[in-house]
Write a structure and sequence with these properties.
Blueprint (H helix, E strand, L loop, with lengths): L1 E2 L3 E5 L3 E7 L3 E8 L3 E8 L2 E8 L10 E4 L4 E7 L19 E3 L24 H7 L5
Parallel strand pairs: 1-6, 2-9
Antiparallel strand pairs: 2-3, 3-8, 4-5, 5-6, 7-8
Organism: Angiostrongylus costaricensis (Nematode worm)
Family: Belongs to the p23/wos2 family.
GO cellular component, one term: cytosol
């Protein structure tokens, strides 16, 4: 019996993060074109397979793949048009195996707040401490 792997996703304006998590996975097929991603792999005796039909077009051939350990396949997939998507999949139905990767997630409003910096000016701890009377 073929099983659906757990998939996590996040986005930036110009690309998608897609993570497939399976213990001791052996990747048999991992391909992407402009509209979808196909994955097939085995773990022990179980077969996992999924096809993701994307909300909009991507640059599938430019997909970058990282197998960070024996249980996580991380993909970086460029979008054809850099814009924020309301969801990953073309269809609006909720699927139990697809979840948001909150460790990598950024909203459109957060796009300028990379690396933990809030707002465009950042935060100067020395200046703050001097104002509070406890200079460094």
């Amino acid at each position: 019996m073929v099983r659906q792997p757990p998939v996590l996703w996040a986005q930036r304006e110009g690309f998608l993060y897609v993570t497939i998590e399976i213990d001791d996975v052996k990747v048999e097929d991992l391909t992407a074109d402009s509209s979808k991603l196909h994955f097939k792999g085995t773990s022990h005796t179980e077969v996992f397979e999924t096809t993701l039909e994307f909300f909009a077009e991507v640059d599938g051939p430019a997909m970058k793949r990282t197998l960070s350990n024996t249980r996580v396949i991380e993909l970086n997939i460029p979008k054809k048009e850099p814009k924020w998507w309301p969801r990953l999949l073309k269809g609006k139905e909720k699927v139990h195996w697809l979840k948001v990767d909150f460790d990598k997630w950024r909203d459109e409003d957060d796009s300028g707040a990379e690396d933990g910096m809030i707002g465009s000016g950042g935060f100067d701890l020395n200046s703050y401490m001097n104002q509070m009377g406890g200079g460094m």
